[in-house]
Write a structure and sequence with these properties.
Length: 421
């Protein structure tokens, strides 16, 4: 019987990706998040007294800015060595041999598999063979697993591989391979990396994506961590997901239907935050807010979007006591019965409806409008430009969403003014 940790996609010292441009963002907390999650991984290995640690690629996030990243890694691998725990690592696309220009000698308990060929390391006392190959370049397009050796007879065989498998949305198609190809190798466990969502592709034998150790953006929702694998005397594995992350990303979906005022929606957000906090075990959160539905409050919200986005942020500060940050608020609401405003009308209202219809049906017409509005964008203050709660006239999808929101509000106001007294 033995046990090990399977981790991947640590992305040590991952950059902030403009996080520091957002007002009120917990910059320092996010800057250190990947390191703190890695520290949790090392501590878990020690406390569980595992026999070894596997890291299936992307330990780094690219070339080191300076030697501090390497020194940090060495110090924590030395902690493992002092506890008698070896680590086996393959380099992924972010830490390929051609990407990391700086280097430090690693402690002797660390094995980094070579980039030019598959290699096998045998651990005699565990009757174990670990097979792996690192990336030589950031973009490996061939199936590396084809070159992995056959399973060693009488040994527990583990394949350590950085791969997209058969392809995953949002991930580059690096080192693609088939599930049948992996299973037919005859290995007892495949430890995969590259895909940031934990996933078990096959249970017998286990073919497992560990997922990343710390979510870094709004596309990486929910708990992040590693897999603790315990092999019993019969060779059967028990898999346990172990969270390591120190901050969470979440989406707060708010149905504004039947809300009578903007504050009704803010109250719904506060209640949703309470549920999200419980779901995420009280960890600090970065939350994206989606407000949608038909509501009488649409007129109020859409006429002063900046005010209501800040009301949402204010509620997060009040509730979260600094542990909840609203990353972005997206408002996609309309007035009740807005569809009735599409009925044929004469005069200016009819012409306006016709124009909205043309813009909705013709992407080229929207782009022509975008060109006309771009001059206005250039006159805006710098803080309102770009992709942070500002305007993006060159983005056809954004412009279409804006027109959808503005149309019912504008038509209702015009029809109200036109109505006889």
């Amino acid at each position: 019987m033995f046990k090990f940790l399977h981790a991947a996609d640590v992305h040590l010292d991952s950059p902030l990706h403009k996080l520091d441009l957002y007002e009120g963002a917990p910059v320092e907390e996010f800057r250190r998040a990947t390191r703190r999650a890695f520290e949790n991984l090392i501590q878990l290995a020690i406390s569980e007294k595992v026999d070894f640690l596997l890291i299936a690629g992307d330990l780094y996030d690219g070339d080191w800015k300076d030697y501090n990243t390497g020194l940090y890694l060495v110090s924590h691998m030395s902690r493992l060595r002092d506890c008698g725990i070896p680590a086996f690592i393959v380099a992924g696309n972010h830490d390929a041999a051609s990407s990391i220009t700086k280097s430090l000698r690693l402690p002797d308990n660390v094995t980094l598999f070579p980039p030019d060929r598959p290699a096998t390391v045998k651990v005699e006392k565990l009757n174990l063979a670990i097979h792996g190959q690192s990336f030589s370049t950031p973009a490996v397009r061939k199936d590396l697993s084809l070159g992995y050796p056959p399973a060693g007879k009488g040994l527990y065989n583990i394949g350590l591989l950085h791969t997209c498998a058969t392809g995953r949305e949002g991930h580059e198609p690096y080192a693609p391979c088939s599930l049948d190809g992996l299973v037919n190798k005859g290995y007892d466990y495949w430890a995969l990396g590259h895909v940031h969502q934990h996933e078990i592709l096959c249970k017998n034998p286990p073919v497992v994506f560990a997922g990343n150790t710390q979510g870094r953006n709004i596309r990486e929702l929910g708990p992040k961590g590693c897999v603790l694998v315990t092999i019993d005397d019969s060779g059967w594995p028990k898999l346990e997901c172990k969270p390591l992350d120190v901050v969470r990303w979440a989406i707060a979906e708010l149905d504004a239907t039947d809300a009578k005022s903007g504050f009704d929606i803010v109250d719904r957000f506060s209640r949703r935050l309470e549920a999200l906090t419980a779901e995420n075990e009280g960890l600090p959160m970065a939350v994206r807010v989606h407000i949608h539905g038909e509501t009488d409050a649409a007129d109020t919200l859409l006429s002063d979007i900046e005010r209501w986005k800040n009301e949402i942020r204010s509620a997060s500060l009040d509730f979260g006591k600094g542990r909840v940050w609203v990353e972005k608020t997206k408002i996609n609401i309309s007035l009740p019965g807005a569809g009735r405003l599409s009925e044929p009308c004469e005069g200016a209202v009819g012409e306006l409806l016709k124009l909205f219809g043309e813009l909705d049906a013709d992407p080229d017409a929207r782009m022509e409008l975008a060109d006309e509005l771009s001059d206005l964008e250039k006159k805006l203050p710098p803080e309102l430009r770009g992709d942070i709660d500002g305007v993006r006239f060159a983005d056809a999808q954004w412009l279409g969403e804006l027109l959808t929101q503005v149309r019912p509000m504008l038509l209702k106001r015009l029809l109200r003014k036109r109505a006889p007294e």
